[in-house]
Design goal:
heterodimer, A: about 325 residues, alpha+beta, GMP Synthetase, Chain A, domain 3, three-stranded antiparallel sheet, 8 strands, about 15% strand, B: alpha/beta, Aspartate Aminotransferase, domain 2, Aspartate Aminotransferase, domain 1, 2 domains, seven-stranded mixed sheet, four-stranded antiparallel sheet, 13 strands
Chain lengths: ~325, ~400
Amino acid sequence: MWDYSDQVKEHFFNPRNAGVLETANAVGEAGAISCGDALRLMIHIDPLTETITDAKFQTFGCGSAIASSSALTELIIGKTVDEVLRITNQDIVDFLGGLPLEKMHCSVMGYEALQAAISNFRGEQWVNDHDESALVCKCFGVDETIIERAVRINRLTTIEQISHYTKAGGGCSTCLESVEEVLVRINAAMAAEGLITAEQAYVVGATDIRALNNEARASTQSEPVVASGKTPRISPLRTARFPAKPGAASHRLTPLQRIRLIEDAVEGVRSHLKADGGDCELVDVDGDQVYVRLSGRCADCQIASATINSMRQKLHEATGLALCVIPVSRGSHP
Amino acid sequence: MRPIYLDNNATTRVDPEVVQAMLPLFTDQFGNPSSIHDFGASVGAAVKKARLQLQALIGAEFDHEITFTSGGTESDNAAILSALEVMPHRTEIVTSAVEHPAVLTLCAHLEKTRGIKVHTIPVDRHGRLDLDAYRAALTPHVAIVSIMWANNETGTIFPVAELADLAKEVGALFHTDAVQAVGKLPMDVKSVAIDMLSLSGHKVHGPKGIGALYVRRGVRFRSLVKGGHQERDRRAGTENTAGIVGFGKAAELALKFMDDQNTRVKSLRDRLEKGLLQRIPNAFVNGDLLERLPNTANIAFEYIEGEGILLLLSREGIACSSGSACSSGSLEPSHVLRAMNVPFTAAHGAIRFSFSRDNSEDDVDRVLEVMPGIVEKLRDLSPFGGRRDEVSRNFDPV
């Protein structure tokens, strides 16, 4: 079992501010159930003083994910929006007295949800839509923007660190080369800005990706390393948001366009299913969650869950969006 | 608080009788069994007795078909590497998607470094082997089939006798990792076509660091560990005499308790399983309900994550394990649950309870008492908890 700090244990066993905040006027979400952890942060911000008067969370995930969420709410209640925008995942780690290295992504999830909630309050779109930024890791739905934020805030300089902080590359590991490319680009920029030295910056080929691939598979045996809560502090990002990549804005989808795109993709999947004597219909789309109802032979198929998995893959390929496909039973509506 | 140990597929408590049997090997009987003098001879006799005890447990025809090793992993490695060495013209391996890493990691390594072709046979949602894919993979190119007798995570039993017969038809050797099955299922290897079989001491209330490989008489074998002539040239290195004697005693006791495993222990497992499914909605059993080890229950609790369950159970003094990603340090759920295509809403919340003869009715009562509250607490925390009655149960068990 993990060597969790006393604070992590305390915030897991007795989480603060868990539950639904009925009075919330801003909500931010990060993660997905398919990825193993997900956080919904609900906050109430006084519109006049822009002070966070209350915050609650709901988290699906391991002990450190729940503790990180609890810590996050404690960190932000009573602070102004400007103040909380300076909070990074490292503040969550410090508050908890350190997290095991492999669990750093739990703190990043908290940071992402907070930023999303503040953007939601301001009526802005938090740049974590995968139509804005290239999806790097399909297994965990991690895009370049999330990697860039984690690399800059935590001054990451290795591929393994990126996996620990964002999960990217931790699944099938076919994206490790893309992760490497992103790391090289960001580290070069950070070195130019004086955030890290040229020696610290990652260079192509510094890690044997093939070996890393094997290590990632075998790493379950290794002893977890506890990251010190005393990581050197760095200035927060100059802005909490990164500009979209040039040209990306033209690809921004309206909600209607997005739903049409998903509808078309589901139609494409149906032709495959019909070939096997099955069928499906699109029931609803809620954010990244696509509800479908399987029918015909698919409904009773022994490998319905495999069908759902391949559907998720096909929808992703057709739309470029990281979607979560959720089957609903006949007659029910989510 | 009395601790409750329900992680017996990970390891078991060493039986006090085993400890007693081992102690003389650390004191009076310190000799080297290879020595000609009396110090060696008495230890040699003790090792011989242990070999007979193992022979009886698995129903081997001859005691010299048993070779002692350092454990299940070494036995698996020795079996597969030996087969490739004695049949150099055959360059393929057939195995399953749910094998222990002792087999899968070795196969991946051989694929990469030696160009060995590995056929990984898939399983269905109940963990049952795809027999059509298995038959299709069997060709005269296959040197060895390595398929486990029973799965460590779900307890699902594979039809190894039939699988071995099919392997024989193409002239391939058949090896089975029986580490989880031994002591839980009656065995009579002399009556089936299994060529090699791996065993481990610490899964049957014996010590750690000792295992064995059964090699049917007449099957050619090349030693993995090179050196002296111990174990009839099949495993060099001075014998772990205390471990061997302890393993022998454990094997004798396992045979004695075989009925207990399949009656009393099985009923404990069944009562826990039934009780949990009755008390907790959106929970189901992973694995083949019909062909399953009597001591193993793998239960998925939807919409929550396994590590949280383990931490809360641990606070109640209850030890078990999880197939979830977070508790192991990997980012994905176990390869077994993924191979079974367990839906992701449930794979992260799969918990394995594994019993042994040490467990009692009280243990089951205690888990049934605390588990509903633990699941409820985590579901209340989960953003998906409220959806639990609406989402389809298209994954109905059996």
